[in-house]
Structures are given as C-alpha cells and as structure tokens.
Amino acid sequence: MQVNIHESWQNTxxxxxxxxxxxxxxxxxKSEYNTKKCYPKGSQIxxxxxxxxFEDVKIVIIGQDPYHGxxxxxxxxxxxxxxxxxxxxxxxxxxxxxxxxxxPFPKTGNLERWAKQGVLLLNATLTVRENEAGxxxxxxxxTFTDAVIQKISDEKENVVFLLWGGFxxxxxSRIHKDKHLVLESGHPSPLSANRGFWxxxxxxxxxxxxxxxxxxxxxxx
Length: 221
What we know:
Layout: H1 7-12, H2 14-18, H3 20-35, E1 38-39, H4 47-51, E2 59-63, H5 88-101, H6 112-115, E3 119-123, E4 128-129, H7 141-155, E5 160-164, H8 166-171, E6 181-185, H9 190-193, H10 203-213
Parallel strand pairs: 2-3, 2-5, 5-6
Antiparallel strand pairs: 1-4
C-alpha cells in the first residue's frame, strides 16, 4: 500500500503498510475525513515523519492524541500551528526549557524547528475528530506507532526517548534500554506538573549531554 509519507519511512515501514489492520485503519480515516471535521488536515497526518526522516531520528517524544480544537494540530505532538495560542502542556514544556537551559520562551509553539533537527514528535494516535478527544483511538493507530517505536529501537542506536506520563511510558516497553537512553517523568499537563511530577526533570539538558557524549549534534531547543 502506497502511503503519502517521507520516502525513508515508506521503505522502513513498507511491511506495516501492507498489513490488514493498517488497510482498515486508512479506510476508517478516509471515511472520517470525508464525513466529519477531523484534525490535523490530511496533508499533515504524517508530518512527524515528513519533517524527520528515519535516518535523522535522534530523539523520540511520544504524545497521545492530536489537539482537537480548531487550527491547533499540525501533525507533531505537543506542537501547534503558528499564530495559535500555546496549550498548557506546551507552556509547561517551554517553562522547563527556560529553567533547564536558559532558553527564553519562543514566539511560536510550532515545533517544526525541533523535528528538522531529528526530533520525532510522535502522537500514539495520529488523527482525531474535532472537539472529541480520543475519538480515533483503538482503530489501529496505536498498533502502527508501536511498530514505529520498535523499528527505531531495533534498527538504530543511541536514540533518546523522552517518555512523559504513564501513557508514553507504557509505549516505551518496546525500547531496548541497553542501546538507547530512556528518560521518564510526569506529563507536562498542569495536573501532573503542578503536583511536582514535571518541573525539574532536566530532560533537555540531559538529552544534549548524551548527544554530545556520542559525538552527535546537540538540539537547539
């Protein structure tokens, strides 16, 4: 099955695209987009992969669902389109970056700049109905993104996986921790962050220290 995704991922995931669950998933997604308002827009469903080719992946951040409000989702987890107000979780991410590595708040919450440096911003579910959180869960996306994580873990080494919150940590069970760095903390959402499970994790500094130790270029967060 030909999927409109970056060539490097088309090659890496070609077997996955032929599986019956994935064919059914795409049929479901097409039907949803034809009959309901869904996000992100169709051309951005695989943006995480298009901005970050397989050979460039240095870091994986795992989110859950795309944002389901008008104009927010752009196919990258935690990221919003230019000109859109930053959601609370993203604000808390930038607060931690500001404290951890003294980088001031950016003007935009669009994280394309991270993706282009090798950060795979992967939601577990890549699509959602407008104003219906979780509406495309358990349709096959989770199986697909599990396979993505497995491929990266199996075929690459020295990748940093940032697992924020219990959901992401469950997805991380497929990672070979002997050949990758796995950093875990609470989720940046206000509920978790305000209870002391997010701030002070220093993941951004730790990530760059690890990359530097492996002779890899650090991320400009």
